[in-house]
Amino acid sequence: MSRFEDIDLARLGGVPDLFPANYEAEVDAIRASFIARWNAKRAINPALPAADTLFLENNSTLTLIEECAWRVTLAKQQYNDAVRAVMLASTWGIYLEHRASEFGLTRRVIDPVNPQAIPPVPAVLESDEELRRRRQMAVEAVSTAGPYGAYIWWALEAHPQIKSVAIYGPESGLVDPGEVLVIVLDKRGDGTAPQAVLDAVSSKLSAATVRPLTDRPVFVEAAEIILYDVSVKLTVLPGPDNELIRQRVLARVTAHVTDRHKAEAIVTVSGIAAAASIVDEQGKALIEEVEVISPAANIVPGPKEAAFAQSITVTTDVLNDLVL
User: Fold this and answer.
1) pLDDT at 69 over 80
2) pLDDT category, 107, cuts 50, 70, 90?
3) How confident is the prediction for the chain on average, in pLDDT?
4) CA angle, corner 60, sides to 55 and 64, nearest 5?
5) For residue 208, which of 217, 221, 200 has the smallest C-alpha distance?
6) Quick check: bond before 120 cis, omega within 30?
7) Which helix (H) or strand (E) is 313 found in, with range?
8) Which residues pair with 24 in a beta bridge?
């Protein structure tokens, strides 16, 4: 089956630094360069003091070198941020909005402001991640809803509460030639799209300016939701940070299963275990053992289905029997 898949920019990894910024390295480099220049001057004028006396803690020369190194480090960080600001995978905020404006996109209002509420409820705006994906898909807008990517684009534009859509053509075996099936997943609750959202998608994709003449009216359905529970048990070493470790694992597992909340996305036991396995800054494992109690087996949704974790629980069991 031929399916369009847009690139997941989050999986490309972080944008590398164009100018590696390391304060200590800058101090060492400036010091070495200074010593070389100073020794060249001493060769001409031996009366000058040796360079090693210039780097005592109470010597202003060392302080000046450190100040120069700090400013160079800050400048390199600013250069790196400037690079990230213009790359779609890493740009953010107003910089992302400018990238989106290249295709006539603005940040959408998900829920409008409600001044009558007590206290007043501010408007909920589209997140950077959502706007980034629409900007990434915007190139598909140059076509009518013919290719898979174009159908995804136009469907996502139909309503701000749509989390994702899946498009199926005749090769899927789900529809006849000339027909298109659109499966819609909502941002709210377990993802079941209400009729108002389905009607908005149907109206958008059925417009004469969008739907190709060779396609019949598009079929739009809400994704069928497979509910499951996530329960993970961690075995950790004794220590004061065990609750912090549990919270960090809970956040990672939640992010993982949220990412798998889309049509036909398989939820694997090994994927949950990997999300629950964390390391410290030195790369040392913080978890002795990860046991995924639920789900007991992989969840494999069908073409019209999406899996939703209705509960996520992470518990810790402290390992007391240490072998030294």
Assistant:
1) yes
2) very high
3) 85
4) 90
5) 217
6) no
7) strand 305-318
8) none
